[in-house]
Design goal:
With 182 residues, this protein is an alpha/beta fold. It contains four helices and twelve strands; from the N terminus they run ααβαβββββββαββββ. Helix content is 23%, strand content 27%. Strand 7 and strand 8 form a beta hairpin. The radius of gyration is 15 Å and the shape is globular.
């Protein structure tokens, strides 16, 4: 994709995501800053912040768990290289602790693909598996949303016993919802 394609996709995703009732009514949203070829998230983060939403961003810890910090705009991000893995953009300010995610009404999850059942294929580090387990232990039930390209919504992804389905996937062409577990 060209830089213009990426920018257009980012804007289309932001527009679709902002129409979600789960985000429209949220006071706090846990999100992430896209890297590499991931669908762009900065336009969405800025739009949420402009609405007065408290946006939490992850900070990768040495054990692959996630701490959280507030998003204060693109200028508040620092590029952090984590060993031989990819560089991530993380909030430069205060750390709120791994439990901060339990205050979010919606959690935007990164992924490589989502299947017809709502199962998400992550990057394999287990960071968001820990987040989902933490939410479950706390009794928190935020909306779980993945932002993807249309081609990344597939028929089937492999799953582990601990995997949980997401509630919605947002692509440039629309939103697909999955049933929430009782």
């Amino acid at each position: 994709m060209t830089a213009d394609d990426l920018r257009e996709t980012s804007m289309a995703l932001a527009g679709r995501a902002l129409e979600l009732p789960e985000l429209a009514g949220a006071g706090t949203v846990a999100a992430y800053v896209s890297v590499g070829s991931e669908p762009g998230t900065l336009a969405l983060l800025d739009a949420l912040r402009a609405r007065g939403v408290r946006v939490l961003l992850p900070v990768l810890l040495p054990d692959n768990d996630l701490d959280w910090g507030p998003y204060e705009g693109e200028g508040s991000l620092v590029r952090v290289q984590h060993g031989g893995r990819m560089a991530l953009f993380e909030p430069a300010g205060e750390r709120l602790g791994p439990e901060a995610v339990t205050t979010a009404e919606a959690v935007l999850l990164p992924g490589l693909a989502v299947d017809a059942r709502g199962m998400r294929l992550g990057r394999g580090g287990g960071s968001y598996d820990r987040v989902l387990a933490r939410l479950e232990r706390a009794g928190a039930r935020p909306a779980l949303v993945v932002l993807l390209y249309d081609s990344e919504v597939v028929e089937h992804v492999p799953e582990e016993p601990h995997d949980r389905p997401v509630h919605a996937v947002v692509t440039p062409s629309g939103v697909r919802r999955f049933p929430r577990e009782p």
